[in-house]
Each structure stands twice: as structure tokens, then as C-alpha cells.
Amino acid sequence: MRSFASAMIAVMVIATVALGCPAGDGTGLDEFGNPDGSGTGSDSVTLSGHVQPIFNQNCALSGCHAGTSPAQGMSLAAGSAYASIVNVPSAEAPALRRVRPFQPDSSYLVHKVQGTQANVGGSGARMPLGGNPLSATEIARIRTWITLGAKNN
Amino acid sequence: MRLLNRVAIVGVVAVVSGLTALRSAHAASAVASSEPHLAIRTGLKCSACHVNRSGGGGRSDYGSMYAQTQLPMRAYPTRSRALTEYLAIGWDVRTVASGYVSDRSPQTALELDEANMYLEARLIDRLLALYVDETLGPGRADTREAFALMQLPGSGGYVKAGKFLLPYGLRLQDDAEYVRQQTGFTYDTPDIGVEFGFEPGPLSWFVSVTNGTAGAAEGNDGKQVTSSAALVFRQFRLGGSASRNEGDGAARRDVFGGFGGVRIGRLSLLGEVDRIEERPPVGPVLKQDAVYVAGDLLLAKGVNAKATYGYFDRSRAIPEDERVRWRFGLELFPVGFLRAAMFYTVDQWIPQATTDPDRISLEFHLHF
Q1: CB contact under 8 A, A14 and B293
Q2: pLDDT at B305
Q3: Which residues of A fall within a CB distance of 8 Å from B317?
Q4: What is the ipTM of this complex?
Q5: Distances (CA, A) of B186 to A33, A37, B124, B135, B191
Q6: Is B359 in contact with B101 (CB distance < 8 Å)?
Q7: Taking a C-beta distance cutoff of 8 angstroms, is the pair B219, A106 a contact?
Q8: Contacts of residue B215, Cβ cutoff 8 Å, sequence gap at least 6
């Protein structure tokens, strides 16, 4: 009897919380949970919509991080970038992952594009190699994507 | 309705429920393991059963014996974790079989979820100890925690230096819960630094200063300061946590929230509410909320029923983007060292999104 009463209390409390905090109905959002038509807000950064275009323009180039033999074995081409970087140990700084979800400061990719790789035990040149550094906005976009969990979205 | 309103309603209901039930509460049967609900059920601080004073990982002598004698349906002669007068070991090996409940192609998996070994060297009894928590798998071996622990005689305090799990919120075993995953305080994110702890009377207060890089090399001049404080009583506990991780320039990540639990007879209720504020170097601040509520009912000695609810508001600036996770299950402790569990997990999000189908998982957990 006591167990039944306890179970009822548990059900009541949890159900009350759940009724007060249900899942969103998705009104006005796309399939990734971002507002329809949005593009640049820090709370709507996706891999496909915001980060991959940066890779495409600056990194996933022939002879760089694309093709059958990408540099460091890291392809940043659409469709393969996620598997190449998220939770994958860095070759230059093995203590770091290339991208550690939620932790941009612990993501070696961020340091490579910021030019701070030497501070975290890394090596080599700032990326993009031989090109202009990414803009502050582009770096912020990558950092925000990682902060949001580095989802394959 | 946004979170604060919801929390207010929940709080009123929880208090009313708690007061009603407390009047007829009876002492619960004692059970222990590496889950916060067991600390609530027993009315003990995390440090009673774990070498790491803020909880999780290797068990203390008391925690080990408790798990062997009070946890299982049937107790056998106990084994001491002490190899010598000053050296003790422990472990957790957890395998999981899971499968999706879906009309799509069946997807099942057998995985080694955790294989960790603990070593404690008590160099000077009740004063100085060395503790190592080594992850042997899955994947390559890695040191999850490695620290020196110096207790401050007569004060109930200690100083810890090295690599350790940060003292924030409820140290749930399930890292997939939003209050773990989204706040960034999981078993995958220990950090390097120093921690101070004070545990006089019912108070447990921990403060750590670490690199803020989740164990990786330092990437900036900023540091992460994390603190958690709780008042622990036999029938309930209440606490709060806060963390600030400074990044480059103006960037920083603030996480803060409250947690608590109450024991009502055979029932343990616990919960946590967190606010996450991510300030990128440029652009607006991202504000998120994460909630966790769980009920654990001790059906019989060695048999625990569990129901959990998780809630995550991905951005307070965007309405109707909230995500919910349910988990129901049964845990069995047939003999010492062994836990078997079955869970049904439901992930609910916006209809247009692709979410994981419902999942059934079976856990087989050896612990010492």
C-alpha cells in the first residue's frame, strides 16, 4: 500500500512537471528547430546551413581537405565533414579532438582557424593555409555550432 | 508558458506532495550505488560512498561494503577493496544492448558503455591520498580522474589537485540527460585544476578552478570557476551550482541552477533546473534551460523502479523548440557487484524534426 502511494506521488510530481514543460509544437520552425527563414542568429547555427558553406569556400578544396586523399585524412567536404571532425582526435594535438561538442575552446579545429594552435600543444600553420584567415563572424559561427552541440544538422 | 512559471507550479505541487507524504513517511530500506537517488534514499552525502568527495567513480570502503551488503537481493560474504593497508581498487564495467522501436530497418547494438578501474593510495591515513580513475574502454585508454586529495584535519575540508570531474549539480550516471549533456558537466568532461571542499555538518560546498578546456591543453587566459553547495538532511537535500568559463575576449559560458531531492518512504524524488548562457565573441547571447526530474521507487530489496523526465529549451528566444526525454525502467541487484537494468527511452521534439525512435536498452553492470 505504501509502495502504491509512493508510486502515485512520483507519477503526480513527474506528470505535473511534464504537463508544464511539454515538447515544442514546432510552429514557425524548420526541421532543425530553427526559425523558418532564419540564417544568422547565434541560436540557429547548423552544420549544413552555416558551417559547411565556410568549409566549402575555404577548406574543402582540391589538394586541401577534400578529395580521395585529404590533408591529415580530414575531409571537410559536404557529407563527410561531420565524420571527419566531430569527436575525432587531432593528429597534431592528440590531447584534443578536432571538434568537441559544446566545447569550442577544447576543439582543435577552432584553434587552427584562430591561429592559437601553438597555445594548446598543436603545430603547423593557421588555416586556411595560404589563404586569408576566416573572418571573426565566420569563426564565431563555427564556435557557436560547436557550442550548440556540433550536431550533424 | 515559459520555464519560471512552470517551475513555480511544479514547486508548489512538489512542496504540497512532499509535506503530505512526509507526515506518514517511514524509514526506507537502504540501498546504495553510484546514483544520486541512492544518496537521497540513504540521506548521506556523496562523500560517504565515493572517494571523489563530490561523487561518482570509485567507492569508498563504506560505499563498497554498503553496495555488497545492502544493495542486492541476496548478500554473500564480502570482499574488501583494499589490496594492502594503503592500496585499494575498484571498477565499473557496463555493457548495454539496445534496439530501436521503429517500423524502419531494425537497428540494434551491443556496446561496451564503460570500463573504468579505480586505484586509491592512502599515503597518510585520513590526510593524504592519491586517486586514479582510468577509463579502459570503450576506445583507447584515458585517464578520467587523477588527483591528490589532502584532507584538512578537524575542519571537514579538503584540497584536491589534478584532473577531476567538476562539482556541478547532480552527478547522474546517464550523461545523455539534458542537465548533464547540455550544461557540459559529464563523465567525458573532467578538467585540470584545483578544488576546495568544505563539509561541516549538513553542508557540502565545493569550489574548483580549472582550465576550462574539459581536460585538454589550455587555450586561453580564461579559467573556469565551478561551485556547488548543498544542505543534506536525512529526508531531503537542497542545493545550487554555478559555473563561469571564460573564453577568448568577451566570450564566456555561464551555467547556474538548483537541485534537490526528497525521500518519501520508499520513494526518492530528485530534480535539477539549469540555465545556460553562452556568450560568443560576437553576436547575441544564447540562453537555454535544462530540467530533470526523476522518481525512484524501491519495490523490494534489490528491485528499483525508475522514471525520469528531461526537458531542454534550446533557445529561450525561439518559442516551441523545446525537447523532452522520458525514461522508464527497472533495476535489479540480484547479488553484490551486479546490476541489471532495462529501460525504455522516448525522445520527443518538434513534429517536423527527425528524432531517434523509442529505444529499449538492457544494461549489465559489474561494480566494485
Answers
A1: yes
A2: 96
A3: 41, 43
A4: 0.71
A5: 24, 34, 31, 14, 11
A6: yes
A7: yes
A8: A95, A106, B163, B189, B190, B191, B192
Measured CA to CA, the distance from residue A1 to residue B102 in angstroms comes to 37
Facing residue for A111 by CB, picked from B212, B219, B353: B219
Show the DSSP H helices in A21-94 as ranges.
Answer: 52-58, 81-85
Tell me: the pLDDT tens digits for A131-152?
Answer: 778 877 788 888 888 888 888 8
d(CA B331, CA B73): 12
Picking from A32, A41, A100, the nearest residue to B284 by CB comes out as A41
Measured CA to CA, the distance from residue B121 to residue B90 in angstroms comes to 12
Q: Do A13 and B17 touch (CB under 8 A)?
A: yes
Q: How far apart are the C-alpha atoms of A22 and B321, rounded to whole Å? A: 10
Chain A touched by B9 (CB under 8 Å): yes
- Select the residue from A25, A45, A106, A120 to test the B interface by mutation, using most B Cβ atoms within 10 A: A106
Q: In sequence order, what are the residues at sequence separation of 6 or more whose Cβ sits closer than 8 angstroms to the Cβ of residue A110? A: A99, A104, A139, A142, A143, A146
- Supply the pLDDT for residue B171: 93
Confidence of residue A35 (pLDDT cuts 50, 70, 90): confident
C-beta atoms of B14 and A13 within 8 A: yes
Minimum Cα–Cα distance from B297: chain A residue: A7
SS3 content of chain A, % helix, strand, coil (to 5): 45, 5, 50
Of all residues in chain A, the one with the smallest CA distance to B17 is A9
User: CA geometry: angle at B334 spanning B329 and B338, to 5°?
Assistant: 85
Over its C-alpha atoms, chain A yields an Rg (Å, rounded) of 21
Under a CB-based contact definition with an 8 Å cutoff, are residues B218 and A111 in contact? no
Tell whether B266 lies on the interface with A, counting CB pairs under 8 A.
yes
Please determine, for residue B247, whether its predicted confidence score (pLDDT) is greater than 90.
no
The verdict on a CB contact (< 8 Å) between B299 and A111 is no
> What tens digit of pLDDT does each residue of B294-346 get?
999 999 999 999 999 999 998 898 888 899 999 999 999 999 999 999 999 99
Q: Which residues contact B353 (CB under 8 A, 6 or more apart)?
A: A26, A31, A32, A33
Pairwise CB contact (< 8 Å): A24 & B215? no
CA distance from start to end of chain B: 45
Does B265 contact chain A (CB < 8 Å)? yes
Closest CA to A78 of A54, A102, A96, A98: A54
Summarize pLDDT for B334-349 with one digit per residue, the tens. Answer: 999 999 999 999 999 8
Q: Would the CB atoms of B264 and A9 count as touching at under 8 Å?
A: yes
Interface contacts A/B by beta carbons within 8 Å:
203
